[in-house]
Amino acid sequence: MVSVDIKSNLLSWARERSGLEFSALANRFPKLPDWESGNIKPTLKQIERFAKATHTPVGYFFLEEPPVENIPIPDFRTITNEYTVRPSPNLLDTIYICQQRQEWYHDYARAMGEEPLAFVGSASIKDDVIKIATKMRQFIRFDIDERRKMPTWAEALRQFIDQVDSIGIMVMCSGVVMNNNYRHLNPEEFRGFAMTDKLAPLVFINGADTKAAQMFTLAHEIAHIWLGLSAVSDVQASWISDHQVERWCNQVAAEFLVPLDLIKHDFQNNKDLQDELNRLARRFKVSTLVILRRIYDAGGITLNKFQHVYQMELERLISIVAKGGGGNFYLTQAARVSKRFARALIANTLEGQTLHRDAFRMLGFSKLTTFHELGQSLGVL
Fold first, then answer.
1. Residue 139 class from Cβ within 10 Å (0-12 exposed, 13-18 middle, 19+ buried)?
2. CA–CA separation, 280 and 285 (whole Å)
3. Is 226 a residue whose pLDDT tops 50?
4. Are residues 101 and 180 in the same domain?
5. Pair (278, 212) in one structural domain
6. Domain range for residue 52?
7. Is 72 a member of any domain?
8. How far apart (Å, rounded) are the C-alpha atoms in residues 132 and 279?
9. If you count Cβ atoms within 10 Å of the first and of the last residue's Cβ in the chain, which end, N or C, has fewer?
10. Residue 68 counted as domain residue
């Protein structure tokens, strides 16, 4: 076997970029220590396998120096209020595929003669938070009383997504890269992102987060669409971001989901705080952390108590292990790629306007039967 002449530091870079443990990769590639030290050169086949394992484009290994990878949309993320540095391959690949889907839908919408969406970019961070949140809620028709009647967070989130989808925003919600259940998205890295476009606005929600937390993320990213500003976010209702756009979007999202007037009226200060958090979270179908923040905003608790209870509640939620089921594949797939996008792509492909190969790539599977069954589940066939 012929070895290939590559820089050993590129192998180290790819390993570190992947976020995988050295020992885990060394088990799969026993010669990895020698490759990284430069004592042995890998073969082309070995490089191809290593590239696949680390989710690295093969061509990167033939560069002189490791590339500097920047997120292709503005990055407003902070982790514990510190700006993040290197994006993971999972985040980058998720953004790339969403960009491809958005580009396709933009061209499709233009060909179909669709009008630009007036709400995209209609707001400014100078606008009143309560007025914008009220306009958004009324336009999306996400009624608070109807939400209260829903038995679960999952059902409320499903309706929220459907209503946002109906006004023209593609909502994609997934906890993995494409349909690869071995490539999990980490909510600690990002919770969502918005990609603004007058014809094809797109919001991505990290489905690995809790359903209640996803509600807030979706509201936050919709606020970005109203501003007309694309961004990847680490959304936390409790944090007061140093970034004025994130701060404004957080305020709008909180008011959209839990209006301050209602929390002032409904919060019972003479009851146990934890019981109140649980009761109000069930009513508004948001996380207890969002409710806690709104109680503080309403003057129901002091800053010291808010910070203390928030930390305890955060630790409690982190300790809860979510147990998910398989569910219906086609419902899951539609949620991952947006019903609006999937219906348009499948119909356009059946009309012969888009190649099946390209449709499969954007949908994340390769079987024709799966394509037809997804179309049937969405009412296209």
1. middle
2. 8
3. yes
4. yes
5. no
6. 8-62
7. no
8. 27
9. N
10. no
15, 31, 209 from 21: Cα distances, Å: 8, 15, 23
pLDDT digits (tens, 9 = 90+) for 67-101: 888 888 888 776 544 445 678 899 999 999 999 99
One-letter identity of residue 196: T
Nearest to 375 by CA among 322, 328, 333, 336: 333
How many CB atoms are closer than 10 A to CB 358?
A: 13
Q: Percent of the chain at pLDDT above 70?
A: 92
- Determine the Cα angle at 53 with ends 333 and 180, to 5°: 5
Cα–Cα dist 259/137, whole Å: 10
Question: How many domains, in total, are found in the chain?
Answer: 4
Please give, one letter per residue, the 3-state secondary structure of the chain.
CCECCCCHHHHHHHHHHHCCCHHHHHHHCCCHHHHHHCCCCCEHHHHHHHHHHHCCCHHHHHCCCCCCCCCCCCECCEECCEECCCCCHHHHHHHHHHHHHHHHHHHHHHHCCCCCCCCCCCCCCCCCHHHHHHHHHHHHCCCHHHHHHCCCHHHHHHHHHHHHHHCCCEEEEECEECCEEEEECCCCCCCEEEECCCCCCEEEEECCCCHHHHHHHHHHHHHHHHHCCCEEECCCCCCCCCCHHHHHHHHHHHHHHCCHHHHHHHCCCCCCHHHHHHHHHHHHCCCHHHHHHHHHHCCCCCHHHHHHHHHHHHHHHHHCCCCCCCCCHHHHHHHHHCHHHHHHHHHHHHCCCCCHHHHHHHHCCCCHHHHHHHHHHCCCC
Task: Output the CA–CA distances (angstroms, integers) from residue 253 to 61, 218, 224, 308, 371, in the order listed.
Answer: 43, 8, 10, 23, 35
Q: Do 302 and 176 share a structural domain?
A: no
pTM of the model: 0.87
Q: Which residue has the higher pLDDT, 201 or 182?
A: 201
What are the tokens at 217? 């993320």
